[in-house]
Design goal:
With 51 residues, this protein is mainly alpha-helical. It has a domain of 30 residues. Helices cover 96% and strands 0% of the residues. The chain contains one helix and no strands. The longest helix is centred in the middle third of the chain and has 49 residues. The chain is rod-shaped and about 75 Å long. It starts with a helix and ends with a helix.
């Protein structure tokens, strides 16, 4: 029976690792979106200065 408990623990650890990877991907996507928004704001400011 103890090997079943070990297996359950390993499965739990793998699930936690998967969650961490998903969180990292979400954070990267959010950072990319923020960078794009900043770039758009900068372009708008440049256009206002030109106009």
């Amino acid at each position: 029976l103890f090997w079943e408990r070990d297996r359950v623990e390993l499965v739990g650890e793998k699930e936690e690792e998967g969650e961490d990877e998903e969180e990292e991907e979400e954070e990267e996507e959010e950072e990319e979106e923020e960078e794009e928004e900043e770039e758009e704001e900068e372009e708008e400011e440049k256009e206002k200065e030109r106009g």
